[in-house]
Amino acid sequence: MKYTKYFFILLLGSLCFWVSQIKIRLPLLTTIIYKNSKFTIFEMKNPLLAGIFIAASAGIFEEGFRFLFRKFLLKNSRNIVEAAIFGLGHSLMEILYLFYVTGFHTALFSISIWGILERILATFLHIELSILLWLGFLKNKKYRILILAMLLHTFVDSIIPVAGYFRRSIWEVEFLFFAIVLWIGILLIKYHKREENL
To answer: How many CB atoms lie within 10 A of CB 104?
Structure first.
């Protein structure tokens, strides 16, 4: 029974990414932004701001829907393990989508060590952000934590446009990504232990 529940939560995590990104955010970006000549001009003149704007949209939609799924579909979930499984499901759907967009054969044979590292770090980040939101519900700080999760997600996704703008190398980008994921993980562990000891 426990594993059936875990599998259901994994599917909900995957559904969360599918709804928030594939069905809502990406179509909105395509129809409202990328087909808008004014935004195209803005993007050409201000590539950094445009990149940060797109990163912010990912943070708002992904964390917003993660929050809604927890609030309405998993409102009785009080287990951090369940939060981690939800985040894993979210990341797995993202990986499947990337394979679908690039073509499975192309993605399989063109993937680099940096691409593998980036996906591993992204998976840990999704798990961490899910745990963070769960803790927000458990500690009755859900709206403040939601804003924090959106800001963290936006900050991480902004690394790529910022790095591109300042011509940083890929290993610098991945090292910064790793440092942020590690930092969030350490903070979550410390916070959880502190709350348990109160």
So the answer is: 10
**Packed helices 113-138 and 47-68: angle between N→C axes, nearest 10 degrees:** 50
Q: How far is residue 118's CA from residue 155's CA, in Å, rounded to a whole number?
A: 15
Say if residues 51 and 156 touch (Cβ distance below 8 Å).
Answer: no
Statement: the pTM of the whole predicted model exceeds 0.70: yes
pLDDT digit string, tens, across residues 5-43 = 999 999 999 999 999 999 999 999 988 777 788 888 888
The closest alpha carbon to 60, from 153, 129, 142, belongs to 153
| Residue 9 Cα to chain centre, angstroms | 17
Cα 185-65-18 angle, rounded to 5 deg: 100
| Beta-carbon-side half-sphere exposure of residue 184 (alpha carbons within 13 Å) | 24
| 186-191 contacts at long range (C-beta below 8 A, 24 or more positions apart) | 188/128, 188/131, 188/132, 188/135, 191/135
- Each domain of the chain, given as residue ranges in start order, spans 2-197
Question: Could you give the CA distance from residue 54 to residue 162 in angstroms, rounded to a whole number?
Answer: 12
